[in-house]
Structure of Formylmethanofuran dehydrogenase:
Amino acid sequence: MEQDARANAAEATFEELLAGSVAAHGHLCPGQIVGVRMALLGLRLMNFEAPPTYSQLKQLIVFIEMDRCTGDAVAYVTNVKLGRRSLKFVDYGIMAATFVNLESGQAFRVISTEESRDLTLTYAPLETEKRRAQVAAYRIMPDSVLFRVQQVQVDLTPFDLPGPTRRKVTCVQCGQVVRDNREVVKDGLPYCRPCAGGGYFSEAREITWEEMNWAPMLPRPEKVGPPIQPESAATGRRVP
Ligand SMILES: [Zn+2]
Ligand SMILES: [Zn+2]
């Protein structure tokens, strides 16, 4: 009886969190189910509630290894946020997330298995459409089929933690301020990552635009004109 009540409560929590995650993400997809369950498992391994209490949230850091549907669900259920530095995105392209307890130092990496994809029809034999079958199957698959779990060591420095900025330096090439020890030192001088050659963009040129003196307290400009092309490129080469 007591076990039934606990199972019902757990299912209610799952359905509630899934509904919230679907609303935040924009649609119900197999990734939402996997992500909600990934977060529930991670939190359970840490002995945290789902969603975490405020004091638990302050001890929680989550690394998400893919920018896919699942990642949104993990972030929703755990309530970690990029802006609070409790959500770390690492671009591995792996369906996995690591849950770190800052207080105990314990960390669990929960990995979605490829086998679970192959077993979809075993768990949802009546569904003919693949996506619907996945949605149905991932609800009822045991955690042991859906996931592998590793206990891992995560080395965080004070520069990775929430709280005020601990260090600021100025890039000697572009003048941009770099926070939290993210600069690259070359020949003893600090550079931002883009200037050090590790940027995701290239050909950067400062532009001006017609309505550039607008602010929210002013009337909306009727239309935003095209960027005014600089006479000559300040930095980098102009794209022809
Ligand atoms: Zn999705
Ligand atoms: Zn720079």
